[in-house]
Specification:
Helix content: 40-55%
Distance between the termini: 37 Å
Radius of gyration: 15 Å
Shape: globular
Order of helices and strands: HEHEEH
Number of helices: 3
Largest sheet: 3 strands, parallel
Strand content: 5-15%
Number of strands: 3
């Protein structure tokens, strides 16, 4: 049991800085958030949804992930 709990803890700790990035608002942004994941909406058509952590190009994505 100790090895199992250590493995589980290591797995969960490695995901703390992870973000789910995608260009489909419902499936790639909202669904991961509902599951407790951090997500970023890659808004390639610049729809500017209010209150959404979003980027519209790879330079903005790089900046968002470095913060």
């Amino acid at each position: 049991m100790i090895a199992s709990s250590r493995t589980q803890q290591a797995c969960c700790n490695s995901l703390e800085g992870e973000h789910f990035v995608g260009d489909d608002y419902e499936n790639d942004f909202l669904t991961p958030q509902r599951m407790g994941m951090k997500s970023i909406f890659f808004d390639k058509y610049d729809t500017q949804r209010a209150g959404t952590e979003r980027v519209s190009n790879f330079n903005e994505l790089k900046t968002a992930l470095l913060i």
